[in-house]
Amino acid sequence: MRLKPFERRQGRETTIPLINVVFLMLIFFLFAGSLEKDDARGVTAPTSLTQRDRNTSDDALVVDAAGNAWHDGEELTDETLLALLAARAGEDRPLKIAADEELAAGGLKSVLRAARQAGVANIVLLTRKATP
Amino acid sequence: MRLERLPAKRRPIGLTSLIDVIFLLLLFFMLASTFSRYQAAPLSGTGPGARAEPPPLLRIHSAARFELDGLELSPEDLAWRLAALKAEGRRTVAIVAEEEAKVQDIVSVMDRVSDVGLAGVLIAGE
């Protein structure tokens, strides 16, 4: 029995499809992802079915499931939380609160009360869009 | 003086360097980008609404236990009771969350309130 001699494959024909796929992935990540800082990645924001205004979690006040407040990656004590809220009191932009979906309402309410007492009027809660 | 023309160098552009750059870009965007998108649900008041009539009070005990003006409601009843309030000409519903309710429950209820066209106002202090 005679076997055909083994043919060397040429390198070219595999590199171009590879580049195509990599290019496609590059374009996908360029368009689908965003380069914004996600401050709320430590918590799971509650899902919401209602269409609301888009927002980012940049500079958000993060409240984790245990009720601890975080800002900019640092845990806040009562004093620093009040100082942060007082600094925000006169500002026009809304105070973004990113609360964990498992946080008890009491924890959220105490933060809201503190914000209200500090004079912050414009407060929004960050939610994720639910996938139906 | 005769200058000799330099022979034109014909070298195909290396594919390897191109792939290198694309791979680098791909890696950068894969690692640096985030996919989470957030929406903002307003929690603060809906502006000056000088109503003499106090709004109906919706109390959230848990994901499946609500109380509207002191009357226990099942989640199924909630939708049509809210629609009935809307039909009565109400505009706002005051939402009070009990301590043990989760934030997700509050957001779900606010969704349902806004679904029927009412404005939900979360009451933080009691």
TrEMBL record, chain A:
UniProtKB keywords: Cell membrane, Membrane, Protein transport, Transmembrane, Transmembrane helix, Transport
Keyword Nucleotide-binding listed: no
Ranges in a coiled coil: none
Domain of life: Bacteria
Membrane topology type: Single-pass membrane protein; Single-pass type II membrane protein
Cellular component GO terms, alphabetical: plasma membrane
Transmembrane domains' residue ranges: 16-35
Pfam families named in the record: ExbD
InterPro entries on file: ExbD
Signal peptide annotation: none
GO biological process terms on file: protein transport
Protein's cellular compartments: Cell membrane
Listed GO MF terms: transmembrane transporter activity
Family label: Belongs to the ExbD/TolR family.
Listed PANTHER family: EXBD MEMBRANE COMPONENT OF PMF-DRIVEN MACROMOLECULE IMPORT SYSTEM
The name this protein goes by in its record: Biopolymer transporter ExbD
Organism: Stappia albiluteola
Lineage: Bacteria, Pseudomonadati, Pseudomonadota, Alphaproteobacteria, Hyphomicrobiales
Automatic annotation (TrEMBL), chain B:
GO molecular function, one term: transmembrane transporter activity
Membrane topology field: Single-pass membrane protein; Single-pass type II membrane protein
InterPro entries named among the record's database cross-references: ExbD (IPR003400)
Family annotation (Gene3D superfamilies): 3.30.420.270
GO CC terms of this entry: plasma membrane
Subcellular location: Cell membrane
Transmembrane regions listed in the UniProt entry: 12-32
Keywords carried by this UniProt record: Cell membrane, Membrane, Protein transport, Transmembrane, Transmembrane helix, Transport
GO annotation, biological process: protein transport
Protein family membership: Belongs to the ExbD/TolR family.
Full protein name: Biopolymer transporter ExbD
